Amino acid sequence: MSTMATRYMASTNLQVGARCEINGSWGVIRFIGVTGFSSGKWVGVELDEPNGKNDGSVMGKRYFECREKHGVFVRPS
């Protein structure tokens, strides 16, 4: 995540449906919360382009719906 995006996300309230930028790719926040794949809070983003790692599911658990390679999970900070 870029420094600018990190500062913006840390200084605002994250909301499902909000647009965001992650490492130069734009998308929409689709999930905010805890997951089964790692501890702590995560943000699931549906990217506009196929630059992601998943389809909104990880290790067989669905967190949100999107096309293959359009989903990514990032830490909120």
Automatic annotation (TrEMBL):
Organism of provenance: Paraglomus brasilianum
Protein name: 11536_t:CDS:1
Stored Pfam families: CAP_GLY
Subcellular location: Cytoplasm
This protein's GO CC annotations: cytoplasm; microtubule plus-end; nucleus
Entry GO MF terms: microtubule plus-end binding
PROSITE patterns, sorted: CAP_GLY_1, CAP_GLY_2
Keywords: Cytoplasm
Gene Ontology biological process: cytoplasmic microtubule organization
